[in-house]
Design brief:
- The chain is α+β, with helices and mostly antiparallel strands.
- The protein contains eight helices and eight strands, in the order H-H-H-H-H-E-E-E-E-E-E-H-E-E-H-H.
- The strands form two sheets. A five-stranded antiparallel beta sheet has the order 4-3-2-1-5. The chain has a three-stranded antiparallel beta sheet with strand order 6-8-7.
- Strand 3 and strand 4 form a beta hairpin.
- Helix 2 packs antiparallel against helix 3.
Length: 309
Amino acid sequence: MAKEIISYFQENWQLPPELQYKIFYTVVAVLILVLLKVVALKIVFNRSQEVKERYFWKNSVNNTYYFLLLVFLFNIWVEQVESLATLVGLVGAGLVIALQAPVMNIAGWIFIVIRKPFDVGDRIEINGVAGDVIDIRFFQFTINEIGNWVAADQSTGRIIHIPNGEIFKSTQANYDQGFSHVWDELSLRVTFDSDWKKAKQLCEKIVNEHAEELSFSAKRKLLEASKKFMIFYSNLTPYVYTSVEDYGIKLTMRYLTLPKKRRVAQHEIWEDILETFQKYDNIHYAYPSQRIYFDSQTELGKHDGNKKN
């Protein structure tokens, strides 16, 4: 059958026999690899129901497919080379000059796969853009953006594609890797004539109710992270700090929370504070204000002088 196909190309397309064989073997190689790829993906999807695991195996199958395709095409189209080092050098120099950005992106992909500065599902920030990583490919990775015009660490609905080479140029922040928790702070101010000690006690009680269980789980995560990174905290329990500002006493609540639950935690803590402080008449919120005092004696003297005249 192969000879019949080659004869057809030779009669109708007037191609040299050598080129016909290369085209034929290329088509056969592509068809076989595509078939193997489809079968492999079908097996993966049938055996695994977890989204993250499916994504991992799908990417592995795709990467293997592209690698084998390059190997086969190289063997089919590239004839014997006297010096492999010369070929690699020439090709490498050409790629660096002509395809600098794509080569850097592939190098970035290799770095991401091997070093793993982040993985799918991690919340990261790079070059001022924050979001959850939802895809990693040869030339770019994709994040589901958070923040921006949304006044919290929640999704904006935008999908942002970032070149892999960007990891060599910009600092990356990973919210999930290592410790898996982040420190968050909430501040409020009470007037100088308020019972600030009582207000502080109430804040300590509220923040401990919302963060006590989280701090316990954070200890286990911290022990795991300390095996890989030099991370050390002497105290993981919530704390309320006191300071004085121009217009009141500032109480700052510091506590641990999960990155993706930061806004929910703030919401619950603030609602408890508002409901609790309403029950106390000796606790008042402080805010920038101005007071104007009138000296009654001075005003009276002015009026008397006007009458004499």
